[in-house]
Amino acid sequence: MTQSIVVAIDGSDIAERALDKAISLAKAFDASLTIVHVLLHGRDISALQKMAEVELSAESAPSVDLPLAAAGLLNAYREKAAHEKAVVVIGDYLTGKAANQARAAGVKTVTTRIEDGEVSEAINRVITSVDADTMVMGSRGLGGVKEFLLGSVSHEICQKAPCTVVIVK
Q1: Under a CB-based contact definition with an 8 Å cutoff, are residues 112 and 6 in contact?
Q2: pLDDT category of residue 8 using cuts at 50, 70 and 90
Q3: Domains of the chain as residue ranges with CATH
Q4: Secondary structure of the chain in the HEC alphabet?
Q5: Which residue in 1, 87, 140, 142 has the fewest CB atoms around it within 10 Å?
């Protein structure tokens, strides 16, 4: 019997359909639902948080007349830090929105996870950590050319996941 379902989301239309299927299954089996989003970079989450804290303290510091090279490095850092923060904010938004949708549909136990690292490995870590018996995901996500060249995440999950995998088209 299905008791614990994991669904992977990435903001794609297919991931939205996978979420709908996972919600449907969770309601039908009165199962818990874990919504996972893998950040779109290989950075450690704690490193991202630390980077954001450093940037905020740098922005609040008094203005200093830096040599041109140092100013350029600082600007490059701020652009990268802004990008990294945006990736985390998007992940928070996607998982929050999905959790609200699941709760509104009547799923009783909903949790969210934001992971980093290689996508299929991160998803499999969540499957194992919550002892899921069902994984729901889209057949394709936002991977594009990298996915075509290296093999799809859904194929990798089907090969390595320790549970039933439902692939949504």
Answers
A1: no
A2: very high
A3: 4-168 (3.40.50.620)
A4: CCCEEEEECCCCHHHHHHHHHHHHHHHHHCCEEEEEEECCCCCCHHHHHHHHHHHHHHHHCCCCCCCHHHHHHHHHHHHHHHHHHHHHHHHHHHHHHHHHHHHHCCCCCEEEEEECCCHHHHHHHHHHHCCCCEEEEECCCCCCHHHHHHCCHHHHHHHHCCCEEEEEC
A5: 1
Structure tokens at 61: 């510091």
The pLDDT assigned to 47 comes to 44
Please tell me whether the overall predicted TM-score, pTM, comes out greater than 0.85 for this model.
no
User: Which residue type is seen at 114?
Assistant: I
Question: How far is 70 from 43, CA to CA, in rounded Å?
Answer: 24
Q: How far apart are CA 91 and CA 49, in angstroms?
A: 14
For residue 104 the two structure tokens come to 């509104």
Cα 152 from Cα 150, distance rounded (Å): 7
Mean pLDDT, residues 10-19 taken together: 90
What are 76's two structure tokens? 């490059």
